[in-house]
Amino acid sequence: MDEGGRNPSKIVVVVGFDQLVRPPASLLEAFWSAASASWTGALGALARHARDTGTLRMRLDQTAFTAPARLAYREDVIEAVQSWRASGGRTALTAPHDSTTVSNIAAHLGLFDETHVGIAHGANGDAALEQIYGTGGYAMIAHDETAVPGAVTPAQTRARASFGAVLRLLRPHQWLKNALVFVPMLAAHQLTPGATWQAVLAFIAFSLIASATYVLNDLLDLNADRAHPRKRNRPLAAGAVSVAQGTLLMPLLALAGIGAALLSGPALLGVLLLYTAVTSAYSFRLKRLVVIDICTLAVLYTLRILAGSAATGIPSSMWLLAFSTFFFFSLAAVKRQAELVDGIAAGRLKAHGRGYEANDLAIVGNIAVSAGMVSVLVLALYANSEPVQMLYRMPEMLWGVCLVLLFWNSRIAILTQRGQMHDDPLVFAARDPVSLACGGIVGALALVGATV
Question: I need a surface site. Which of 188, 202, 214, 285 has the fewest CB within 10 A?
């Protein structure tokens, strides 16, 4: 018997669909929730029902229901159901929706023993449940809108967003990645004023476009971010910036980035548009596909290097592209590994909004370590190649770089497994004293090898 005198073996706890799933706070938020499930479905609903907001909202919600992993669930309800099941009780999910929607949600959560369709909350629903379970044979989860203490609610503030909140939404700390556009000129030792200016234009263009895609990603990930222990503090998820403000800001940033690329020339614009297409595909679909998401992240990093080549006219060697591909493939795997470690610590069997499960942790960790070591091997082979003899007076200094990278990759792997890694390894490295020291040593070794 539980504290209320109920016998878990005889009473079924029933949860209504509208108690389990938080509705979007606005029509615009409903659109982005639907777009995260199906971009074509969301646009189709908008095109057909733009003048009838009631029907539009219904169609958008139906589209969102096709992706159970992307819905906003009430964590307090889920915790109550988990507690009842842990005590040996049975649970059921009811909804007025079609059986496919209810079955998909139940299968995704794995919390319900039964599902019943065509049952809405209210007197008629109670009568239907009494016919199924009998009088006193079931108990409904209390129907209220009380927020979980300390949890982030989906309500969006209508106040004007502060400059600090908007700046955090743009993620300027992520612009560090765009410094990769300077790599081709640095690797080729061609630090001319003209090349530097072109690389600066590429940096500005990529930073603006990257911020636009970050806003898009946050709009699509509102529900997943609100369920994440750290991402729930992002401006859109926390309500510091409204969904409407984010929706307006995104195209403005994109247009500004395209304008900066045009100042450089068509080559940079072409790479920038390719980057935008790939990163948009990543936000909409690819990031939820196992391994493909890691490959895509590695491609996005490498495209920044190719953008530097396009802007400056300095080609990237195959050595540089091979190293960057394996190195960033490793960092992308570290990112997923960190998410899995955090999820397992929180008792989740799957990563939020991803295709990975807890059992994948070992292989994802192995991918991260293996790809990192291969990148060091590529650098070691490069250190003994003919181009190095032309660029460096003391090419043996590059072997010191290999040793530093071996240490850094190994340390990152251990910290990630311990749950001490940031959501983004590059952001972690920019704030980690040991990583900064490793970067300084690498720079010093490369400089000594080139000038001594």
Answer: 285
DSSP string across 189-211? T---HHHHHHHHHHHHHHHHHHH
Euclidean distance between CA atoms 60 and 46, whole angstroms: 8
- Give the phi and the psi of residue 57 in degrees, each rounded to 5: -60, -40
For the chain, domain boundaries: 12-140, 163-451
Q: Which of 367, 450, 365 is nearest to 401 (CA)?
A: 450
Q: How large is the C-alpha radius of gyration of the chain?
A: 26
Distance (Å, whole) CA 198 – CA 178: 13
Question: Residue 402's pLDDT is what?
Answer: 93
pLDDT at position 353 is: 55
The CA distance from 310 to 184, in Å, is: 10
- pLDDT at residue 373 in the model: 94
- Which pTM was predicted? 0.73
Given the candidates 1.10.357.140, 3.40.50.970, 2.40.50.100, 3.20.20.70, the CATH classification of the domain at 163-451 is: 1.10.357.140
CB 205 within 8 A of CB 257: yes
Q: Which residues contact 338 (CB under 8 A, 6 or more apart)?
A: 416, 419, 421, 422, 423, 425
* Residue 233 pLDDT class (50, 70, 90 cuts): confident
Q: What average pLDDT does range 302-325 have in this prediction?
A: 91
Helix (H) or strand (E) holding 94, with range, is strand 90-95
| Half-sphere exposure of residue 91: CA atoms within 13 angstroms, side-chain side | 23
Question: Which whole-number Å values give the CA distances from 378 to 307, 320, 385, 445, in the listed order?
Answer: 22, 9, 11, 18
